[in-house]
Amino acid sequence: MELVRTINEVRKIVKEWKSKGYKVGYVPTMGYLHEGHKSLILKSVSENDKTIVSIFVNPIQFGPTEDLESYPRDIERDKKLVSDAGADLIFYPEVSEMYPSHFTTLVNTKEVSENLCGAKRPVHFGGVCTVLSKFFNIITPDRAYFGQKDAQQLAVVKRFVRDLNFDIEIIGCPIIREDDGLAKSSRNTYLNPEERKAALILSKSLAKGKDLILAGERDANKVIKCITDSLNTEKLAKVDYVSVVDNENIQYIDTIKGEVLVAIAVYIGKTRLIDNFIIKVED
Ligand code: AMP
Predict the structure, then answer these.
(1) Could you state, in order of their start, the residue ranges of all structural domains in the chain?
(2) How far apart are the CA of 175 and the centre of ligand 1, in A?
(3) 124 is catalytic
């Protein structure tokens, strides 16, 4: 497994692979990798001849009061996880490599990025789409792998890839959880032991909402209330949003029908956590 830091080196290596007819899979990450990231890497390794993992804490997707500086980093540990998962290359660029001076181009979506996290983090998805456009142009992967954990991100990426005609298959992968149900996240490391326990309220509350839908409830507001009430039973939890949207355009819906995304963002202490489930309702 190689680690490269420059765009030119990556381009050279990928060109050589493509000359041999190899299919290239790509897993974008911000590092501090865990089993969730590993599941994407393993899927890419199983479906492609070569797999590239990028590790880049992208400054332009963080708002001014967000955790850019404190975001956890451990490249040595990450190298081991990527190598154990069987990937071929880590692309680990410096910020100056990705954003030279006078960098002024921004890729953004409308509609699909306007609600949920897009409403709460106004610069976030523009930063994500911009950096991914760059990585897609540098790496030119055949397939790219994203977690359902960041459900709105997955919808946004599918949209801009379609709209801008990137010739890349976008593959969504299921949420990987801790044994007790907490969705794995690099940010879980911010939680102290008391907060870690309190964080279970996210998956527990979503499970209640899901049970309600499975029992026949189709009123989105009743599901939102059920989940919100449950989240509010935890004193360390502060609800950022609880939303029910269609899973394609990420627009709010009143009636649960079709492929629906139920998504939440909750502060546990100072740490903002997200979680969700998708449910298909035909009747
Ligand atoms: P991040 O490093 O947080 O930007 O995440 C990189 C990729 O890993 C994104 O596509 C995430 O959706 C995905 N990911 C993060 N956590 C999980 C998880 N618990 N299960 C599955 N995928 C995940």
Answers:
(1) 2-173, 186-277
(2) 8
(3) no
